Amino acid sequence: MEHLDTRDLLKLYEWMLLSRITEERMTDYHKHTPLPELPHAGIGQEAIAAGTVLDLRIDDQILPSLRTRGAFIFKGISSRTMMAGAFAKVTGAARGKNTSHHMGDPKVGVVAGSGVVAAHLPIAVGVALAAKLQKKDYVAVAYFGDGGSNRGDVHESMNMAAVMKLGVVFVCENNGYSISTPLDVHCAVRDIAVRAQGYGMPGVVVDGNDVLAVLAAAREAYARARAGEGPTLIECKTYRWLGHSERDPRDLRPAEEIAAWREKCPIKRLRDHLLSNGLADEATLDDIRAGVAAEVDDAIVFAEQSPLPPPEEAALHVYAEPRTDR
Amino acid sequence: MKITLREAVRQTLAEEMRRDSRVFVLGEDVAAYGGTLQVTAGLFDEFGPDRVFDTPLSEVVITGAAIGSAMMGMRPVLEIMFADFIPLAFDQILNNAAKMCYAYDGEMSVPMVLRAPFGGGMRSGMHHCQNLEAMFAHVPGIKVVMPTTPEDAKGLLLAAIRDPNPVIYLEHKMLYGARGEVPDGDHVTPIGKAAIRREGRDLTIVACGALVGKALQAAKELEKTGVEAEVVDLRTISPLDKDTILDSVIKTSRLLVAHEACKTGGIGAEIAAIVAEHAIDALDAPIERVAAPDCPVPFSASLEDAFLPQPAQIVAQAKRMLGRRFA
């Protein structure tokens, strides 16, 4: 792939590990001390966020799903802020008013999401509409799952983005399950991407566990979006290793299916690629892991030691005050 | 020169679009067609397809598009064809528009306006005539305004476009033809400020939308019997102007609320509660409400006229409240 040097590959490796270790620590922590923010881990799906964020600029806007944990961090929200958000501390999202997995930050181009699945896709259309009206070429990247793909919001959003040629990149994280309901029960087509044809936009299927394949698809989609050629639907086939959330009453998925997907770990895959092509040695990759682990450890200590939001702030900032800079 | 409320909305949109390049108009059939009720007629000719454009018939995404573009610094004015269709996009309003500022702890705002015609009287049936303002007033994070004069149509629209928060701007269909003087220039009607349309000492009638005119008719009738009714036009449904309501009720000692929405859970209930909380000792009579019955808006004229609150009901109710004097 053009313009992809070893430094970028190592960054992707570091990012995926950061996402992985963050979520491992969150879920482990939750087992002994329940976190206020119930973990909905995307472990196993890290390549999607990493591959789609690498090429983004600071002014590009991402609209993550609640399972796109890594995208928040890769786009620029600190591990400390993320973790403090999961701990519902004053140093977290919106001073404890919002959860970390729905938070937004205009400084780094993360748009706050909704607890209503896929209800952020219409907002992504608005973000891209603003870019068009402002004659700018920033893009809106909206993530959603196979479950969310069935909501009417998705239909309306894809149609409007396509007919107005808006720079939205729709990233479907198809992990095969809408909570417990398998794809073949909730959806009559095998590939969500085929729906793109019905809206008059390209739809591509990529191996969502291959970060380089995701990156290549994203690169093409962003080029189209920035050129005013309209939206793209990228369907990333993947799998979540854990349940829907850490409060899953049961996991109905076959044990052998889970085990098979664990073998397709996106991080191990990139590690093997780096080692077998002589792009990095074991020691370098181990150092990256140690650095990432230290960052997450620090974030946990930070979250633990941060205070809760003061109760008197509960009803603050319901309405915006008039201001001139927006 | 007197102009209609419809013309006031159109002129104000044009003036603000000339002043602020961030303002744009979107909605179903709002461009060359001029809107199904012709409120945006002519804007497309002046401002072109980048500033005034038609959208797919997709209330959810067009509302989300208004929200998202507002978050990115634009000033969208979205038309929803009839207020009855706003519920299609209610998730976007309730869970996105209304909550963004809070979700960012004040670091984000959604400066959008959602315009929609509403109300009965045009024989358009149960899906085109509802008064849903109380549903929206129940949502913290949005503002709801309802002009009843051309002057306020301008003033409230300017205030709504310039407000950093999402504002639902409701236009009563039977008031589109109402004529009045409209001040030139930067005439802003503050959001959250009611207007006293008629002063009186015996009774306060708090009304909104089409019921303001009907309350004024009722007040004229009452005047013939020596009763001086004060008529308060809410203008803003959320946030309510508690001070003006309370000051008036403390002066007159009687409160009658009149609205076209169904009685149960209507904004009248909130107004009654505010007065009961803060001024119950000032009351010389129980609080009364004149409102539509709890049923859908009927189609046939004879039924719709029976459904819509009329001046005679206000007169009768007022006389009952002033019972001793009429005994």
Automatic annotation (TrEMBL), chain A:
List the InterPro entries hit by this protein, alphabetically.
DH_E1 (IPR001017), PDH_E1_Alpha_Subunit (IPR050642), THDP-binding (IPR029061)
Q: Which residues form the Dehydrogenase E1 component domain?
A: 14-311
Q: Which Pfam families match?
A: E1_dh
> What are the names of the required cofactors?
thiamine diphosphate
Q: Which reaction does it catalyse?
A: N(6)-[(R)-lipoyl]-L-lysyl-[protein] + pyruvate + H(+) = N(6)-[(R)-S(8)-acetyldihydrolipoyl]-L-lysyl-[protein] + CO2
Keyword Oxidoreductase assigned to the entry: answer is yes
SUPFAM superfamilies of this UniProt entry?
Thiamin diphosphate-binding fold (THDP-binding)
| This protein's UniProt keywords | Oxidoreductase, Thiamine pyrophosphate
- PANTHER family per the UniProt record, alphabetical: PYRUVATE DEHYDROGENASE E1 COMPONENT SUBUNIT ALPHA, PYRUVATE DEHYDROGENASE E1 COMPONENT, ALPHA SUBUNIT BACTERIAL AND ORGANELLAR
Record's function text: The pyruvate dehydrogenase complex catalyzes the overall conversion of pyruvate to acetyl-CoA and CO(2). It contains multiple copies of three enzymatic components: pyruvate dehydrogenase (E1), dihydrolipoamide acetyltransferase (E2) and lipoamide dehydrogenase (E3).
What is the recorded name of this protein?
A: Thiamine pyrophosphate-dependent dehydrogenase E1 component subunit alpha
TrEMBL record, chain B:
Transmembrane region(s): none
Please list the cofactors this protein needs: thiamine diphosphate
Instruction: Cite a single Pfam family from the UniProt record.
Output: Transketolase_C
- SUPFAM superfamilies, sorted: Thiamin diphosphate-binding fold (THDP-binding) (SSF52518), TK C-terminal domain-like (SSF52922)
Highest taxon of the lineage: Bacteria
Does Oxidoreductase appear among the keywords?
Answer: yes
**Record keywords:** Oxidoreductase, Thiamine pyrophosphate
* Residues covered by the Transketolase-like pyrimidine-binding domain: 3-178
Q: Mind telling me which NCBIfam families this protein's record contains?
A: PRK09212.1
What protein name does the entry list? Alpha-ketoacid dehydrogenase subunit beta
Q: Which organism is it from?
A: Rhodoplanes tepidamans
